[in-house]
Amino acid sequence: MKRQITCVNKVDRYNPHERILYVGGAGWKISQQQAIKNIESGSESYYVVRGGLTVDVIVAVHNGNKYIKTRNDGAQPDNLLSLPECL
Questions:
Q1: Where are the domains of the chain?
Q2: What are the DSSP calls for 20-83, one per residue?
Q3: Sign of CA pseudo-dihedral 28, 1, 79, 67
Q4: What gap in Å lies between CA 26 and CA 62, rounded to an integer?
Q5: Coil, strand or helix: which one is 16?
Q6: In whole angstroms, what is the distance from residue 2 CA to residue 45 CA?
Q7: Is residue 5 within 8 Å of 47, Cβ to Cβ?
Q8: Does position 73 have pLDDT exceeding 60, yes or no?
């Protein structure tokens, strides 16, 4: 199943790789850790729509810690961090 991420919940940490706690969309919300497990197992994939473009979400590793980011924004998960907060 492919799901669109439309919101995130984050903490006020300086490191952008550790800021996202939860991601969500229409009627769903899961932890970043669960999203990582889903992507790695192949049970679900995720994407965001920014500027009319669909961008896949992938698992990356920074300093030994896994996190999610969009495929095209380099080392910073800016596309995800710029999404509104989930309610």
A1: 2-81
A2: EEEEEETTEEEEHHHHHHHHHHTS-EEEEEETTEEEEEEEEEETTEEEEEETTSTTS-HHHHTS
A3: positive
A4: 29
A5: helix
A6: 5
A7: yes
A8: no
**pTM of structure:** 0.86
10: helix, coil or strand? strand
Nearest to 69 by CA among 53, 80, 61: 80
Residue 13: its pLDDT value, please?
63
Rounded Cα distance between 71 and 5, Å, is: 14
**Whose structure tokens read 């799901």?**
3
Sort residue 79 into left (φ over 0), alpha (ψ -120 to 50) or beta.
Answer: alpha
Q: In 3D, which of 72, 50, 48, 49 has the Cα closest to residue 60?
A: 72
What distance in Å separates the CA atoms of residue 50 and residue 29, rounded to the nearest whole number?
19
Question: How many angstroms separate the first and last alpha carbons of the chain?
Answer: 23
Lookup: tokens for 41: 């197992």
